[in-house]
Amino acid sequence: MSAAVPELKQISRVEAMRLGPGWSHSCHAMLYAANPGQLFGRIPMRFSVLMQMRFDGLLGFPGGFVDRRFWSLEDGLNRVLGLGLGCLRLTEADYLSSHLTEGPHRVVAHLYARQLTLEQLHAVEISAVHSRDHGLEVLGLVRVPLYTQKDRVGGFPNFLSNAFISTAKYQLLFALKVLNMMPEEKLAEAVAAATEKQKKALEKLLPTSS
């Protein structure tokens, strides 16, 4: 049986704005475009979704923490995006969700999503190379492979086996589901395949019991 798609506690934007000063707010953006292309001429690409490799070797969405004392969510997000992408401004209309993170730090993670054309997405990739933080805090944008190859591991399951920052993996799965970019059963199958791959890799690293 496929593993369920993991979830975090979702709250409304209004509820998030009512949280006290003990909470930190992080805002990130998922930029995506429909992609009619085919890998090897036979595997549908479906969509192209941008994520980025961070300075700490973890994958995440473009964005960062927003100091609510000085910035609205969108102004803070656009300020950070300007440093890492350099050419895009999002608005409240692009708001998608807010989730409470698990762990010792009280953080509410806000996700924004905007659909672009494939040409616009490519322009963002080009602009990102010339942004202030490229090669420093941001080590490059990557496209998420939203397909699974015949071995049931290649593509999306392998991508999910990477290390992600904080809520990024959960936000990716959530957005793909609510935006109808991938059926939930396919998401669950990819999660299960990625989990099994990581389990087998860990077993190889651990010494066998005598």
From TrEMBL:
Q: Which family does it belong to?
A: Belongs to the Nudix hydrolase family. TIRR subfamily.
* Example of a GO cellular component annotation carried by this entry: nucleus
| KW Iron (keyword) present | no
Q: Which residues form a coiled coil?
A: none
Query: Does Nucleus appear among the keywords?
Result: yes
Q: Which UniProt keywords apply?
A: Hydrolase, Nucleus, RNA-binding
Q: How does it assemble?
A: Homodimer. Interacts with TP53BP1 (via the Tudor-like domain); interaction is abolished following DNA damage and TP53BP1 phosphorylation by ATM. Interacts (via the cytoplasmic part) with SDC4. Interacts with TGFB1I1 and PXN.
Q: Which SUPFAM superfamilies match?
A: Nudix (SSF55811)
Name-wise, this protein is Tudor-interacting repair regulator protein
Q: Which GO terms describe its molecular function?
A: hydrolase activity; snoRNA binding
Q: Where in the cell is it found?
A: Nucleus
Q: Which CDD domains match?
A: NUDIX_U8_SnoRNA_DE_Nudt16
- Relate the protein's function as given in its record: Key regulator of TP53BP1 required to stabilize TP53BP1 and regulate its recruitment to chromatin. In absence of DNA damage, interacts with the tandem Tudor-like domain of TP53BP1, masking the region that binds histone H4 dimethylated at 'Lys-20' (H4K20me2), thereby preventing TP53BP1 recruitment to chromatin and maintaining TP53BP1 localization to the nucleus.
Q: What is the lineage of its organism?
A: Eukaryota, Metazoa, Chordata, Craniata, Vertebrata
Q: Where are the transmembrane segments?
A: none
Instruction: Output the superkingdom of the source species.
Output: Eukaryota
